[in-house]
Amino acid sequence: MKGDQAGFSVVELIIAVSIGVIISAIMVGITLTLYGSTVRSQIEAELAVDNHFALRTMVEDVRFASSIGSGNQLTDNHEPGSGWTTLKNNDMITTS
After folding, report:
1. What is the pTM (predicted TM-score) of this model?
2. Between the CA of residue 52 and those of 29, 44, 47, 55, 65, what are the distances in Å?
3. Tens of pLDDT, residues 54-78
């Protein structure tokens, strides 16, 4: 500013606004990056839980299938009255 003038010149205002816009753009970029990382981490955690559940279910199925004997008879403590039998070596199990 010169002498007894009050206020800012147009050049000073343009520089101040430009600096403010640059700082705001940087802050928005940082915020969006952090938000994206948080969302990605949450999705990965949910997928890990889903994968754990799927693998646990598959392991239980394999262990359960290994108890089926060569005569297509399944030993199960919770079986209905006459037991479980399979249909012609297929993977379908029916009650008899």
Report:
1. 0.47
2. 35, 12, 8, 5, 20
3. 999 888 887 777 665 555 555 565 6
From 73, 70, 71, select the one nearest 84 (Cα to Cα).
Answer: 73
Structure tokens at 38: 């948080």
- Angstrom distance (rounded) from CA 33 to CA 40: 10
| CA 80/CA 16 separation, integer angstroms | 82
- Token pair recorded at residue 56: 């646990």
Q: What size, in residues, is the chain?
A: 96
Residue keyed to tokens 């993977």: 91
The alpha carbons of the chain give a radius of gyration, in whole angstroms, of 35
With H, G, I as helix, E, B as strand and everything else as coil, classify residue 85: strand
CA distance linking residue 25 with residue 38, whole number of Å: 20
Is residue 86 within 8 Å of 93, Cβ to Cβ?
yes
